[in-house]
From TrEMBL:
<dbReference type="InterPro" id="IPR000836">
    <property type="entry name" value="PRTase_dom"/>
</dbReference>
<dbReference type="Pfam" id="PF00156">
    <property type="entry name" value="Pribosyltran"/>
</dbReference>
<dbReference type="Pfam" id="PF18912">
    <property type="entry name" value="DZR_2"/>
</dbReference>
<feature type="domain" description="Double zinc ribbon">
    <location>
        <begin position="9"/>
        <end position="45"/>
    </location>
</feature>
<comment type="similarity">
    <text>Belongs to the ComF/GntX family.</text>
</comment>
<dbReference type="InterPro" id="IPR044005">
    <property type="entry name" value="DZR_2"/>
</dbReference>
<dbReference type="InterPro" id="IPR051910">
    <property type="entry name" value="ComF/GntX_DNA_util-trans"/>
</dbReference>
<protein>
    <submittedName>
        <fullName>ComF family protein</fullName>
    </submittedName>
</protein>
<dbReference type="InterPro" id="IPR029057">
    <property type="entry name" value="PRTase-like"/>
</dbReference>
<feature type="domain" description="Phosphoribosyltransferase">
    <location>
        <begin position="121"/>
        <end position="213"/>
    </location>
</feature>
Amino acid sequence: MRFETKRMLLHLFFPTRCHVCGELIGSMDKFCNACSEKLKMYEGNFSIEGAESFTAVFEYDDTAKPAIFLLKNGIGGNADYAFGSALAEKLRSEGVTDNIDVIVPAPLHKKDKRKRGFNQSLLIAREIGRRLNIPVEEKAVFKARHTRAQKELDRLKRTLNLKNAFTADSKKLEGKRVLLVDDICTTGSTLRELTAVIKNSGAASVHCACCCKTVKKAQ
């Protein structure tokens, strides 16, 4: 059964709800109209050291937080579909997709994956790959050391927390132009550490992408 057909049949029996407010909606990959208007598109110029580019779709604010919560906790059924499709569209519009050979999701440590049951970044990466016809390599990068949750730490401690936490398989990355995908970017510590590991493993280039980016509020 084709993927889109399966989605349509599932939607008939299990109607889709907006991932922000819970309102019933008629599309598998859209937020409701009201929340779509409230979600702020990310328009910053943030960069990741060592990466060729950085792409984010939405600002991580009070409107986006409920949707990310659903994504991280596997509630609602297709938040990955909604975010993945939105990110794929933005990557295509920015011309990034012409320079990608493989998509690599930010990894979870096995303890965290076992507790959660899935890796939300992998789900997003798969949706991007499906839409852009780019392969996803889910076993190219591993989180070898368990760390504290980044959200509990300040900027400096975030960087130290992730030092030497990741390893990569150079056989899967050597010479490849990589799209590195994560759900949220706050200070960029995770993407920066992963970018360094991937490039040190022989990748030709790294482009970073995430669903949401935190933005400092004006004083």
